[in-house]
Amino acid sequence: MKKVLTIAGSDCSGGAGIQADLKTFSAQGVFGMSVITAITAQNTMGVFAVEDISPEIIGKQIDAIFQDIEVDAVKIGMVSQIASIEIISEKLEQYLPKNIVLDPVMISKSGFSLLQPDAKQALIEKLLPKCQMLTPNLPEAEEILEYALGKPYRICTLEEMVVAAREIYKLGPKYVLIKGGHLEGKAIDVLFNGEEITYFDCERIPTKNTHGTGCTLSSAIAANISLGNSITESVRIAKAYITDAIEHSLDIGKGVGPTNHFYSLYKKAGMKYE
């Protein structure tokens, strides 16, 4: 069985973060492991507090995994402070894992900043060049390019997504997948590999329950890369998976509910739930 590691924050409500990552890994048929970078107090209505795990413990967690278990892919999510980014970067250089997917988590759906302002530079300069794939949504892509270009940057059209993908590619990742969920119309994602642009589109699903979609998509991509699928095929499979999970999302809580990570498995097992 392939083994995939998530390095990310914890979501106590279970919809995003390492909880979503581990559910996704299981749904994709790989063995999931986790390094917790931060504890968040959040639910479907928002993020209310964040407490970072010490860099020492983050480093020890990474050591514990790599000194014992072969890691076939790594997904990196919420890394909110400079010290956390630096220790992760150091450990990546030490263990040289393959197939790193970086989801540059910066702001929650409720507007809570999950990346400290002074940590943006460290994320861009230390982690982007080490990743095989970067998976920003539009606000995250804008933040990255505002730093890189030194001026305000906005992405409002599909054509501008393509331009942004080409610009972000210059910062070091081998593949850039810009997610178009914030645009109107179809949910179109743009993948750039340094030479070709590939589009992944699907009809937009009319639901408010999209908590954890970014975490889930990036984890599904990492899992499928570990299984030996090409980057393009991994994105295609992951896109289909998250679309299905959103279409059958769970109306849990008073706010933005989570996606349904195990819908297809429940269906195959003949399980019914409400």
Q: In one word, what is the shape?
A: globular
Q: How much of the sequence is in beta strands? A: 15-25%
Note the gap between the termini: 32 Å
Helix count equals 9
Tally of DSSP β-strands: 9
Explain this structure.
This protein has 274 residues and is α/β, with parallel strands linked by helices. The protein has a single domain (3-261), classed as Ribokinase (UDP-N-acetylmuramoyl-L-alanine:D-glutamate ligase, 3-Layer(aba) Sandwich). Helix content is 39%, strand content 20%. The chain has nine helices and nine strands. It has helices spanning 17-27, 55-66, 82-95, 120-127, 138-149, 158-169, 213-226, 231-247, 263-268, and strands at 3-11, 31-43, 46-52, 73-76, 100-102, 133-134, 175-178, 187-192, 197-202. Helix 1 (17-27) links the parallel strand 1 and strand 2.
List keywords for this structure.
single chain; 274 residues; alpha/beta; UDP-N-acetylmuramoyl-L-alanine:D-glutamate ligase; nine-stranded mixed sheet; 9 helices; 9 strands
Can you lay out the helices and strands and say which pair or pack?
Blueprint (H helix, E strand, L loop, with lengths): L2 E9 L5 H11 L3 E13 L2 E7 L2 H12 L6 E4 L5 H14 L4 E3 L17 H8 L5 E2 L3 H12 L8 H12 L5 E4 L8 E6 L4 E6 L10 H14 L4 H17 L15 H6 L6
Parallel strand pairs: 1-2, 1-4, 4-5, 5-6, 6-7
Antiparallel strand pairs: 2-3, 7-8, 8-9
Helix pairs in contact: 1-7, 2-3, 3-4, 5-6, 7-8
Give a summary of the structure in a few sentences.
The protein has about 270 residues and is α/β, with parallel strands linked by helices. Helices cover about 40% and strands about 20% of the residues.
